[in-house]
Description:
The chain is mostly helical. The chain has a domain at 48-139: Winged helix-like DNA-binding domain superfamily/Winged helix DNA-binding domain (Arc Repressor Mutant, subunit A), CATH 1.10.10.10. The chain is built from six helices and two strands. It has helices at residues 21-31, 48-58, 68-74, 81-89, 115-124, 131-139; strands at residues 66-67, 102-103. The chain has a two-stranded parallel ribbon with strand order 1-2. Helix 3 (68-74) crosses helix 4 (81-89). It is globular, with a radius of gyration of 15 Å. The model is unreliable at 134-140 (pLDDT under 50). Belongs to the MGMT family. One of its GO terms (molecular function) is methylated-DNA-[protein]-cysteine S-methyltransferase activity. It holds the Pfam family DNA_binding_1. Keywords: DNA damage, DNA repair, Methyltransferase, Transferase. Its EC number is 2.1.1.63.
Amino acid sequence: MSEGTVKRIRLSRASPDLEFSEMAARIAEHIRGGPRPDLDLDLSWCTDFQMAVYRAVLNIPRGSTATYSDVAKIAGRPGAARAVGAALRVNPFPIMIPCHRVVASNGPGGYSQGIDIKLQLLAIEQHEMSREQRSFARIG
């Protein structure tokens, strides 16, 4: 953190630095279903489209998913599913902007932290994927 804003959050198996342990604890609580931590996320670098995508993703309820196409429509650019994927690929705040809830129409789609973590997060949120979607995740 610098000057009170969070620049990026990365998922890691390593123990967090003591400076960030309180923030990490609040994020872990959020993953388990607790309230979203009130963090000042620095999104000043985002384009208008990226902001629209991130706003749309923030409105996907816990335990639910939306397709890249759905998010493109909500963001005001129907047909821009690939651009949604590109915006989510550079999301510096996975979990806080829950891009793991955005899936492809035929499977889980990508995730900057890896498909296994995406599937684990969806499982924690009690979202059940179909057998075809789970199979696709292991192949794709």
